[in-house]
C-alpha cells in the first residue's frame, strides 16, 4: 500500500492506493460533506455528488433533484498523462501580509522535479499546455489580489476585494496556459493591504501539471472574459456567457462569441468555471449541456452561487466537474436573471476544459 498527496483545491487530500507502488491523483473540490455518493467511478476516474436527501442540494418547485453545491472529483494523472509532470505545494502556517511573491515551501508532490521550493516557482520542462491552480484563504475583513505570472508577466487573477466578511474565506483560480520550455511561473499578491492565511489545513496552495494525455491527442481550451456584464432589468440573464480572450485552444474549436465548446471527440472531460461576482449583486451561474437528442439541461455538478448582496467588493467563485460528452454535444456557461459578473484585463472570469479520457 502506498500513499500519495496531490491537491488542486483549498487543501491537500490523502489518497491511499492498494497494489500500486507509486500513484499521483488529481483531486478537485471545495469541500467533501459526509454522505457523498459515487456517481461515476472506475480505476482512473471518480466523481461524487451530494445524495438527494443531502442538505447540500437545491430543489426545484416539483421537489426534483436540481444541483449540488459541492462536488468532489478526481482522476489518476499517472494513468492519463505521459510524461508525468505534476506538483502541489502549500504555504506554511502563517499570515502573508502585503504585496510580493507568495512562497509555498511545503511541497506535497513534485513529479518531474519542475517545482523549485526555495523560489516557489515552477519551470516548464517542455513546450506544452499546463493546468495551473492557486487557492488562498483570505483573512477576515481583508482583501486579496493574487496573480499567476509567467516570466514576470501577469496572466490571470484571483481576487476578493470585499472586506465586510467577519471570517476567513477560501477562493480558487484555475486555468490552462500554453508554456514554452523554461518558462517560469510563480504566484504574486499585488494588494499591499491584503492578508493571506494558511494553517495546518494548508488552505493556501499552488498546484499544476503538464497536460500530456496518453495517446498524444489533445483537446483543451481556456477562454477568459475581459469585461463585466450587469443585468439592467430584473428578468435579464446572460445566456450564453461570451469569452473574448482565448489563452489555450488545442483542437477544441471553442467559439468565443457564443462561449460554447462543441465536442468533436467523445469522452470524459474536466470542466472548470471561474466567475468574479460583482459588488452587492447576486450570482447564480450554471454550466449547460446541450445534447443533440435530449436538448439543453443544467450539468448538476457545476453551479456557482453567491447569493449574498451585502458584499462590498468583488469575490471569485469557482466550480469543477467531470462529464461524459458525446460527439456533437455542446457546453456553455449561463447566468440567472438579475445577475452580474465582473471582468477586466486581468481575466478573472473564465471557462476551461480538457479531454481526460476518450471513449471512441
Radius of gyration: 19 Å
Mean pLDDT: 81
| Number of strand elements | 32
* Poorly predicted residue ranges: 1-21, 30-43, 46-71
Number of domains: 2
Helix fraction, binned, reads: under 10%
Largest sheet: 7 strands, antiparallel
Number of helices: 1
What is the CATH fold-level name of the largest domain? Jelly Rolls
Secondary-structure-derived class = mainly beta
Strand content bin: over 45%
Q: What's the overall geometry? A: globular
Cα distance spanning the termini:
33 Å
Short synopsis of the structure:
By secondary structure, the chain is an all-beta fold. 1% of the residues lie in helices and 54% in strands.
Q: If you had to describe this structure to a student in words, what would you say it looks like?
A:
With 360 residues, this protein is an all-beta fold. It has two domains: 82-211, Jelly Rolls (Sandwich), CATH 2.60.120; 220-358, Jelly Rolls (Sandwich), CATH 2.60.120. The chain has one helix at 77-80; strands spanning 2-6, 13-17, 25-29, 37-41, 45-49, 57-59, 65-68, 71-76, 86-90, 94-97, 100-101, 106-111, 115-116, 121-123, 128-138, 144-150, 153-160, 169-179, 184-189, 195-198, 205-211, 220-225, 229-230, 245-250, 260-262, 267-277, 283-291, 295-306, 315-325, 330-335, 340-342, 349-358. The strands form seven sheets. Strands 9, 10, 12, 15, 18, 20 and 21 form a seven-stranded antiparallel sheet that branches. It is globular and about 50 Å long.
Amino acid at each position: 500500500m502506498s500513499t500519495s498527496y496531490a491537491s488542486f483545491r483549498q487543501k491537500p487530500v490523502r489518497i491511499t492506493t492498494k497494489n500500486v507502488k507509486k500513484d499521483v491523483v488529481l483531486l478537485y473540490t471545495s469541500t467533501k460533506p459526509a454522505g457523498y455518493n459515487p456517481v461515476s467511478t472506475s480505476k482512473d476516474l471518480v466523481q461524487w455528488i451530494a445524495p438527494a436527501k443531502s442538505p447540500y442540494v437545491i430543489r426545484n418547485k416539483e421537489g426534483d433533484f436540481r444541483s449540488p453545491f459541492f462536488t468532489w472529483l478526481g482522476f489518476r494523472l499517472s494513468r492519463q498523462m505521459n510524461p508525468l509532470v505534476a506538483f502541489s505545494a502549500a504555504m506554511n502556517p502563517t499570515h502573508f501580509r502585503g504585496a510580493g511573491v507568495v512562497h509555498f515551501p511545503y511541497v506535497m508532490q513534485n513529479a518531474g522535479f519542475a517545482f523549485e521550493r526555495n523560489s516557489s516557482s515552477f519551470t516548464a520542462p517542455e513546450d506544452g499546455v499546463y493546468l495551473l491552480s492557486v487557492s488562498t484563504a483570505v483573512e477576515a475583513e481583508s482583501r486579496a489580489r493574487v496573480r499567476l505570472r509567467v516570466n514576470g508577466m501577469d496572466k490571470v487573477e484571483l481576487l476578493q476585494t470585499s472586506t465586510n466578511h467577519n471570517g476567513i474565506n477560501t477562493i480558487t483560480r484555475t486555468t490552462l496556459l500554453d508554456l514554452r520550455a523554461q518558462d517560469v511561473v510563480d504566484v504574486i499578491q499585488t494588494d499591499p493591504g491584503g492578508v493571506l492565511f494558511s494553517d495546518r489545513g494548508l488552505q493556501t496552495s499552488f498546484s499544476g501539471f503538464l497536460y500530456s494525455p496518453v495517446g498524444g491527442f489533445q483537446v483543451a481550451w481556456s477562454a477568459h472574459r475581459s469585461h463585466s456584464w450587469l443585468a439592467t432589468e430584473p428578468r435579464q440573464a446572460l445566456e450564453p456567457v461570451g469569452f473574448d480572450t482565448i489563452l489555450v485552444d488545442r483542437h477544441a474549436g471553442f467559439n468565443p462569441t457564443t462561449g460554447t465548446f462543441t465536442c468533436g471527440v467523445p469522452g470524459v472531460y474536466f470542466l472548470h468555471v471561474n466567475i468574479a461576482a460583482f459588488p452587492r449583486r447576486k450570482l447564480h451561474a450554471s454550466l449547460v449541456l446541450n445534447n443533440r437528442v435530449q436538448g439543453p439541461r443544467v450539468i448538476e455538478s457545476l453551479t456557482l452561487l453567491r447569493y449574498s448582496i451585502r458584499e462590498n467588493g468583488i469575490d471569485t467563485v469557482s466550480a469543477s466537474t467531470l462529464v461524459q460528452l458525446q460527439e456533437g454535444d455542446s457546453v456553455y456557461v449561463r447566468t440567472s436573471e438579475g445577475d452580474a459578473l465582473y471582468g477586466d484585463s486581468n481575466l478573472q472570469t473564465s471557462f476551461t476544459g480538457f479531454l481526460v479520457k476518450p471513449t471512441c
